[in-house]
Fold this sequence. Notes:
Strand content: 15-25%
Oligomer: single chain
CATH topology of the largest domain: Rossmann fold
Radius of gyration: 23 Å
Number of helices: 13
Strand order of the largest sheet: 13-14-12-16-18-19-20-23
Amino acid sequence: MADKEVLFVPNELLISIRHATPSPWPYLDRLTALLGKTLQPFGLRVTPPTLPRPPRHDAVYEDTGASVQEMRRATSDTDSGDDKVSYTSKQPSASGRGLLGGWTFRPATDELFHSVLRYGVAATDAQTQPVLVGAAVITARLKQLNTHMAEDVRISSAVPNWAMSGEPSGYVVGGPGGRPTPEPNLPGISRWHFVFSDAVAKVAPPGGEEVLVVVLDTSPDLQEVDSAAAAFGGHNSLLVELATGGTHPVASWEDVLGEVDYAAAHGPNEEYLMRDHGLFVAGIIRDIAPACTLRVVRVLSDWGGGCLTSLIAGLEYVHDLAQTHQGPIVVNLSLTVKAPVRAALGHLYKGLLQGHEGITNPYTTPEDASLPLLDVMRGLTARQGFPILFVAAAGNDSGTLRGNPLEPRVPAAYETTLGVAALNAAGQRASYSNRGDEADQVLNGIATFGGAPPAAGDEAGAGDAVRGLFSAPAFPSDAGSPPANTTGWAQWVGTSFATPVISGVSANLLAADPTLTTAQVMATVIGLAAPMADPTLQCNGLTASQIPI
């Protein structure tokens, strides 16, 4: 199944460059011209954006006429050595040069600045997936291209702006774990609470406000959240806590999903509305780490879709928080980037590159195929002082496989990230779950309770699912009237919901000892888990369950 993925890729190319000066703008005219000349023999051209991108903060630029020119500075001086600047091309240029926008940052351990630039790519003939071919062409020509760049700048990678999702099955064959379903209204229930072994329970300190947990995900309708809390408060004390005016509300609900990214995410993959995905995740974290400071940042559309650039925008928000937050940060990524797995990369490019002489598959791993994102995450984990820990879902693509599960998806596959696979209530691998770890790298994966889909004919039963918050008035349904939400609780399954379990445990560890490094937190969390009898997940398993209280 790994070579039959359904790919949805916006026609955008991401180019990473490394340069010595704070601003990349002196290099952009030459870079754009070189990209155009390189792509032209292959029937491809650089295109302008189809939609304006909303202005960002710090520094905003505009592309006017034949060259990219700095138009104005906002709050920061890009020549002052500031370690991050954002910019956007608000309108297509008259010459058709197609810079869409980008992000510049400098890791604390690197003297060079890194910029991630986004370009549109189109075909001059009937060529399919022009952006995939364009990425391969530029990657194959990197050495030649760099001979024409200035001495203090180097192009380091070119990748498609891969789609990204939380759950919808339209993105790949095989997943999700399942749709949300109503939780039966059990009399006397106030909340569902996670419980762990004694070893895990002992790491939960009484405080923890200095630990910031950022959830990059969908965002609910906040009016629905408050209405559901008012209506179902007697059955759902957790929802009351998180709602406006609650005892432990979400500190902020942010939205960094701009118009361009939303258009890219809003493609043919509208499986079902899932605005509450981020709320469900946030509720799990609040239950396990009740004192942490919690923020939810919208990087996915209401259907759970996004792309590399919307995730990078969310990470930029994390970067900004890290400049002023005096404490550890945990970033929950209950999402996966749809860069194909290893076997599928070879299959994909073998077909796409037929007839293109001298161009071969440029990527051997999903990490190769998403290097700009990896660069940004490496830069954040190099933060001096307090750590930034990424916790990411391994993916739900293995449900149709008869053999071993697939490798973890990006960004769970990165060495910067604690990848999370899913177990059922019996502590066995959930049928849909990808592996928690790569086979050829250091241990940085773990598995925990993510639930299992209900048995056939038992879709309305209690099943073996994670219980979490749900604020929409009704549940998604393909047939008849959609089931009404009568408790503010839902059943949902997937590695998306195993991930916040590990984020909550990690937040408690950091609250107990904020001097831990990122590597130490990862090792400690994995050390709390036990080796599994089933070796296919290639990681330890952390026992967790939920009880009604």
